[in-house]
Write a structure and sequence with these properties.
Elements: H1 14-21, H2 27-39, H3 41-53, H4 56-67, H5 72-80, H6 84-113, H7 115-123, H8 145-155, H9 159-172, H10 177-190, H11 193-206, H12 211-224, H13 228-238, H14 247-258
């Protein structure tokens, strides 16, 4: 008595269809599958779809290579063992599979390596003067031509030209905390982080009025340079300010760089 392989009501699965199309079934299995196909339009359509769109030989080769992908010698040997006409296709398929493994790893490495850049972009919102003054400032209007030109260029977001005039002005006004702070911000906008750090560090101690702003952007400059240690020190100092303007942002940023 023959053993029933398929129940009449049970449709074929992908593995059974694959074995049938690749001619790896025995006579009894083939007979049962063909009988089922006669009474099941759904499985007949599925088999036709597999036959038209699934290359069992190539995918079998790829599966074998995937199982041994961790061993380069075995992979190369497996490719050499393929028929000549299949090597190019298989190499392309293996390369694609390798890229699918490599890309996520590369993405993770980039994500970690660029953490400072990501955080900097998340927290940096630029700094614009309001009426030519800092937040809460009450500076007297300066009549120096270099200073005026520097402010005009800064307000126009032409930071490179603003720096030319800030530098000329600061040659004779080294104690001007506002000009020093704005020069630091212009360097920050220009991507010159060493100079930005230098000017912002000076500005935060030249005048208490600019301490908070200069400290916040100095911390961001350190973050951009992946100097989390100094960034945390500056953020801790910012958080000591009672009802500080940047307290909420400083707390959030410190949490992120401490993880």
């Amino acid at each position: 008595m023959k053993k029933a392989i398929f129940d009449n009501s049970k449709c074929l699965n992908a593995q059974q269809i694959q074995h049938y199309l690749s001619e790896s079934t025995d006579d009894e299995q083939r007979y049962q599958i063909e009988n089922h196909l006669l009474d099941c339009p759904l499985c007949s359509e599925a088999l036709e779809g597999f036959a038209n769109h699934y290359n069992f030989e190539e995918d079998k080769q790829l599966e074998e290579l995937k199982n041994r992908f961790g061993n380069q010698t075995n992979t190369e040997a497996s490719i050499r063992a393929l028929p000549k006409q299949s090597r190019l296709i298989t190499l392309n398929r293996v390369a694609a599979a390798a890229m699918m493994l490599i890309i996520p790893i590369a993405g993770l490495l980039y994500w970690n390596a660029s953490s400072g850049e990501r955080l900097y972009q998340s927290y940096y919102d630029g700094f614009e003067l309001e009426g030519g003054q800092l937040r809460g400032g009450n500076d007297a209007v300066k009549l120096d031509a270099n200073y005026s030109k520097a402010i005009d260029f800064y307000n126009a977001k032409d930071y490179a030209n603003s720096l030319t005039y800030f530098e000329q002005y600061l040659d004779n006004n080294q104690e001007d905390a506002k000009a020093t702070f704005l020069a630091g911000m212009a360097y920050l906008e220009e991507g010159n982080y060493p100079n930005a750090i230098d000017y912002l560090s000076t500005a935060r101690f030249n005048d208490e009025q600019y301490y908070e702003e200069a400290s916040w952007y100095l911390a961001l400059a350190y973050v951009k340079n992946d100097n989390k240690t100094d960034a945390r020190i500056i953020l801790d100092e910012l958080l000591k300010i009672e009802n500080g303007f940047y307290a909420k942002k400083a707390t959030a940023l410190k949490t992120e760089i401490s993880e």
